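chain below, 179 aa
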Amino acid sequence: MAEYQSLTHEFDPVYDSNSRILILGTFPSVKSREYHFYYGHPQNRFWKVLAAITNEPIPGSIPEKKQLLLRHRIALWDVIKSCEIIGSSDSSIRNVVPADIPWLLQQAPISAIFGNGAKACELFRKYAQPLLEESFQKGKCTKEACAIQKLPSTSPANAAWNLERLVGCWGTEILPFLQ
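prediction:
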């Protein structure tokens, strides 16, 4: 039986001063931790979806993935800085320390936050949203940045959503913020 591991997120958020939207995951999977970058599992459809909605080739290398994000003003990070987790199981996550999302919102003019799946949104609302509301009260971020919009998960476990359906939904939600 797998055991809990106490882990800390080991790669930085991707963003620059032009980033307009922030896409949040939960915490890197085992494959992503081995790959040292977001959505490293070959079956995860994240990079295929982003390539399709931006009319770009599917990026292969980490530098190509970063360039795709930044070229389209997309920031990418995870809700959790550290936690205890069994393997890649989001449902096992406990003892959460949230990422410093208020800090990121001071670095880039983010106008919308999207969660890659329900769990990312749930964790955001529980751990990050209270911090953001405090930042909003101090005038350090906009009210829109205190909320998260749920996108269907790109995980292969989300078999109810095929690639075409994911692309349609993600494009409809994200593209208006990138125009």
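The first strand starts at residue 5 and ends at 8. The chain has a mean pLDDT of 91.
thats it, cya
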